[in-house]
């Protein structure tokens, strides 16, 4: 898996990233990459930091990741201490591997690269990285736990999403 790497999504490669798909059973777990890229643009316009990456195996795009910095989980209630880890932290907002490359260890290697990127502190050094996943997504739960993400049980399920946080 040493030929897996991250490349910023640009005008030159966005269309390849847009074509990537998860399995039919996984479609309910996250929006399309096109929707995510559009949302990233809107969030940047609001003044937040968002990084979008294609996950590549050699020259072939095999996945997509979107990382935000200092993105409030609940913009209407950012003072809630349950979500204290969202302040000045990195949010792994989207993470997907194309259905043709799942089950090969690509997701594990890509997550390692994403965490390595976060640890370079591209915006600012942070104490936490966090993410959300659907409560039915047992594959995601297992992968994230293997990296040390811990579920935030006091937050409860919000729209069947589980929040998990990693102390960096």
From the structure above, extract its key features:
168 residues; alpha+beta; seven-stranded mixed β-sheet; 4 helices
Major sheet: order of its strands? 1-2-3-4-5-7-6
The chain-level structural class is alpha+beta
Strand % is 25-35%
Q: How would you state the average pLDDT, rounded?
A: 89
Please write the string of helix (H) and strand (E) elements: EHHEEEHEHEE
Give the number of domains.
1
CATH topology: Aminopeptidase
What general form does the structure show? Answer: globular
Secondary-structure arrangement, i.e. CATH architecture: 3-Layer(aba) Sandwich
**What is the CATH superfamily label?**
Gcn5-related N-acetyltransferase (GNAT)
Radius of gyration: 15 Å
**CATH class identity:** Alpha Beta
Q: Tell me the quaternary state.
A: single chain
Number of strands: 7
Distance between the termini: 24 Å
């Amino acid at each position: 898996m040493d030929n897996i790497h991250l490349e910023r999504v640009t005008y030159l490669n966005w269309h390849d990233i847009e074509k990537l798909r998860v399995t039919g059973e996984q479609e309910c777990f996250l929006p399309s990459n096109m929707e995510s890229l559009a949302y990233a643009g809107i969030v940047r316009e609001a003044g937040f930091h968002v990084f979008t990456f294609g996950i590549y195996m050699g020259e072939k795009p095999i996945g997509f990741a979107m990382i935000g910095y200092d993105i409030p989980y609940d913009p209407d209630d950012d003072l809630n201490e349950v979500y204290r880890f969202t302040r000045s932290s990195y949010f792994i907002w989207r993470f997907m591997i194309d259905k043709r490359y799942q089950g090969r260890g690509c997701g594990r290697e890509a997550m390692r690269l994403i965490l390595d990127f976060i640890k370079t502190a591209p915006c600012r050094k942070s104490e936490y990285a966090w993410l959300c996943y659907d409560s039915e997504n047992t594959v995601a739960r297992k992968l994230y736990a293997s990296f040390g993400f811990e579920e935030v049980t006091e937050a409860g399920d919000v729209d069947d999403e589980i929040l998990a946080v990693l102390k960096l």
